Amino acid sequence: MTARPVAAGLAIDNLSVVYDEFTAVDNVSIRVEPGQSFGIVGESGSGKSTILRAVCGLAPRTAGAVSLVAPPGDRTGALPAPGSREFRRRVQMVFQDPYGSLHPRQTIDRTLAEPLAIHRMGDAETRIERALDEVGLGKGFRFRYPHQLSGGQRQRVAIARALILEPQILLLDEPTSALDASVQAEVLNLLEEMRRRHGLTFVLVSHDLAVVTHMCERLMVMQRGRRVEELSADDLALSRVSDPYTQRLMVASRGFRRGGPEAA
Amino acid sequence: MSAVNAPSPGGWREWLMSDRPQSRRQAALGRAYGGWRTFSRNRLAMLGLAIVIALLLVALFANQLAPYSPYIGDLRTTRLLPPSAAHWFGTDDQGRDILSRIIHGSRITLFVVVLVAILAAPIGLVVGTVAGYSGGLIDAALMRITDIFLAFPRLILALAFVAALGPGIENAVIAIAITSWPPYARIARAETLTIRQADYIAAVQLMGASPWRIVLRHIMPLCVSSVIVRVTLDMAGIILTAAGLGFLGLGAQPPTPEWGAMIANGRLYVLDQWWVAAAPGAAIFLVSLAFNLLGDGLRDALDPKGVK
User: Fold this and answer.
1) Which of B25, B199, B215, B307 has the most A C-beta neighbours within 10 Å, making it the best mutation to test the interface with A?
2) Rounded CA gap, B209 and A165, in Å?
3) What are the backbone dihedrals phi and psi of residue B80, each rounded to the nearest 5 degrees, phi first?
4) Inter-residue contact B304 to B69 (CB < 8 Å)
5) Is the four-CA dihedral A63, A68, A73, A78 of positive or negative sign?
6) Residue A143 counted as domain residue
């Protein structure tokens, strides 16, 4: 664990994803600096999850390019191309639904051993134990099946599975929206701690503005597969938004108030 | 869990049902034990299992259990004798003891059933999971081949194969295996189609697992249980098809004591000497019923949604 490569960023240039006739993502570009945490916000069906899936090869890229960004001053050589084994090791994803993202017939041990076997990383025993330790699950959980765990514990396993390959970029697809409020905070704190400890770059997709302002330094608002605007978390906190759609999204995120939005 | 108030003298039950297994072996054994508990609550399934185990033991100790030779009878003194203390199920037209022939025939039945299961189930499983996972052209090609096999009635197709390959028990087994894999491929494909959309498959995909690894290690284990259930339920049909081929003279050849061939033999005397056909008929009935009961029990025990 001595020679962990320093953080890498992620650049998405003019990405489009088209399914048959339907354009899920329309010409979107993002640049996430190494070590930064970037949020993508939008309503359901705005194409935000599709961007993540296109980055890691789960959705077809119709046009555009995805590449890693080396930290400034780093001249260690070529960065792996998307789809290569090394790219897959460096970019990992945590899924939205912890009830669907763990194989129901595999113990936690098997689930965590699988990425190590695929990437032929040795020393599986200690890596698995350390990964479980890091996400706050003790030895007692190692040989359990997913159905013996709670939602929050499952999401911790999913995070451990993503981190066990020592990635540089973690794609988070609504990592807390399937969890109840108290567990949400625990998982978000865990993610934040992992980011600090491992110098990770985050791309977080969420429909929850509060989560994104809490976790991310910069964010992009999306609607119907298009970029609406890009702003910093401070802008959002101080309501310095220009686009009417973002303003509406902000009002909606404050929730229902008696007397209408004017009273807020 | 209930392990706390269960009165257990040894600690092994708690060890098996533990919520926090300490090793791979303990987790696997605990899971098997949970399945066994579900299975053993089903009385009829236990009866089926008992009959199947009895069949296994009879086949294993046929030489010790059979009171007479299954091949040699005395045509002068013991021809077509009714059931008696000396010959429990009577004797046939060659003077052979029917009980001994049924005991030895259990080996052939078991041979057919096991061989068909070993040949047909993996073929169906591989074809179905590969078709379901890869989709597109491979899926279309594999499923059309499956459809072609499904379009023929099983016994007719088996008859054609045996006619081409020549009569005999081995060829009957091959013919039955060739005709019985398509339903397993269909089941495996249907299950694969639902599984491959799951996030846990996407998770191993994005890690860079090869398609073969995903099919073999992640999809197949989830399809195996439903295929096992289906194979067990099909055992009765396989036994009947083998017996049917034997009855038609295309399966086991005389003097092999195959149950279907024995019924065919007794057909000539069915009105006056009913026991010649009745005893092997009852044996086929009993074993087919046992496999059906076993399959029902396994379906409940292996259901992934019903895991306790």
Assistant:
1) B199
2) 13
3) 55, 45
4) no
5) negative
6) yes
Name the residue in chain A with its Cα closest to that of B205. Answer: A58
Strand, coil or helix: B248: coil
Residue B61's alpha-carbon distances to B57, B102, B112, in angstroms, are 6, 13, 18
A105 closest CB neighbour out of B202, B206, B222:
B222
For residue B206, give the nearest of A57, A105, A144 by CB distance. A57
Q: Which of A58, A109, A147 sits opposite B202 (nearest CB)?
A: A58
Q: Do A88 and B200 touch (CB under 8 A)?
A: no
Query: CA A52 to CA A57: how far, in whole Å?
Result: 9
Q: Give the separation between CA B173 and CA B150, rounded to whole angstroms.
A: 18
Is residue A125 one of the residues assigned to a domain?
yes
Interface pTM, i.e. ipTM: 0.85
Whether residue A95 and residue B222 make contact (CB cut-off 8 A), yes or no, is: no
CA-to-CA dists, residue B51 to B56, B272, B288, angstroms: 9, 30, 10
Residue to mutate among B194, B200, B214, B224, with most A CBs inside 10 A, is: B200
Q: Which of A56, A132, A143 to mutate to test the interface with B (most CBs of B within 10 A)?
A: A143
Size of interface A-B (CB pairs under 8 A): 77
What are the boundaries of each domain within chain B?
Answer: 28-54+109-262+269-306
Interface of B with A in 190-209 (CB under 8 A): 198-200, 202-209
CB atoms within 10 A of CB A95: 25
Nearest partner of A151 among A203, A101, A105, A194, judged by Cα:
A101
Q: What ranges make up the beta strands (E) of A43-175?
A: 63-69, 91-94, 169-173
Whether B208 sits inside 8 A of A89 (CB atoms) is: yes
B175 close to B149: Cβ distance less than 8 angstroms: no
Interface touch A143/B31, C-beta < 8 Å: no
Statement: the pTM of the whole predicted model exceeds 0.95: no
Position B249 confidence tier, pLDDT thresholds 50, 70, 90 = confident
Phi, psi at residue B298, to the nearest 5°? Answer: -65, -35
The helix/strand/coil state of A15 is strand
For residue A163, the chain B residue with the least C-alpha distance is B207
Residue numbers of the domain that contains A119: 103-166
Q: Consecutive 10-residue runs of chain A (264 residues): their mean pLDDT?
A: 64 90 89 91 86 89 87 70 86 90 90 92 89 87 87 92 91 88 89 90 89 88 88 80 82 66 47
Residue A86 identity (one-letter amino acid) = E
Q: Which two tokens stand for residue A110?
A: 């098997």
In the three-class reduction of DSSP (H, G, I as helix; E, B as strand; rest coil), residue A231 is classed as: strand
CATH of B28-54+109-262+269-306, one of 1.10.3720.10, 3.40.50.450, 3.40.640.10, 1.50.10.10: 1.10.3720.10
Residue A44 lies in a domain: no
Domain count of the fold of chain A: 1
- At B143, the pLDDT band (50, 70, 90 cuts) reads very high
Cβ(A188)–Cβ(A159) under 8 Å?
no
User: Does residue A152 lie within any of the structural domains?
Assistant: yes
